[in-house]
Amino acid sequence: MTTKKANPANTERAELELPKGYKPMTGGQLRLEVPEREGWHRHWFRGTVGRLKQAQQAGYQFVDSEDVDINNFDIAGDSEEGGSTDLGSRVSVISGDDIGQSGQAGRLYLMECPEGIFEYAQSILQDQLDATADALRGGLVGKGGEGETASDVSKRYVKKGNTQKPFTRRH
To answer: Is the sign of the CA dihedral 8, 12, 17, 18 positive or negative?
Structure first.
């Protein structure tokens, strides 16, 4: 009679002590994934001077490297360090898809703004989209535009009897 010994590799999950920040190998890992912050909206911005200035004018501020731990994809570096490659305190990574005017690789910067400001900006955008969709539904695209005459408007094709409702707002 033989007795079976328990395989030590088959320990119960409850007995395992998982390392800090554990993510299984079976799941994907996003390069720009960052944890959410309560009450704030985070977004990666292309590191051009104009784009960063525009973001600051819209209420965004730079995220400090001490405030967030991003994925570290540095093959030869220290795995304990965060994934930011910025020399300062800002969180940034090389974008990998463009070269700046100085010949250096383009960067993406992580910025955040209060949720209220972000939602206000989204409502302005939604109002513009709704106005465009209303114009398309009503056949009013270009009506009254500069240089347009009444003859131009009368020759515009507008499909009648369309039972479908294009450009309906999703909720």
So the answer is: positive
Is 140 in contact with 132 (CB distance < 8 Å)? no
For residue 48, the SS3 value is: coil
Round to whole Å and give the CA distance between 148 and 143: 7
Per-residue pLDDT tens for 16-27? 788 877 777 787
Residue 45 pairs in a beta bridge with 109
Apex 39 CA angle, 81 and 55, nearest 5: 75
Going by C-beta distance under 8 Å and a sequence separation of 6 or more, which residues neighbour residue 140?
134
State the pTM of this model: 0.61
What are the residue ranges of helices labelled H in the chain?
49-57, 115-138, 150-154
Contact 65, 82 (CB under 8 A): yes
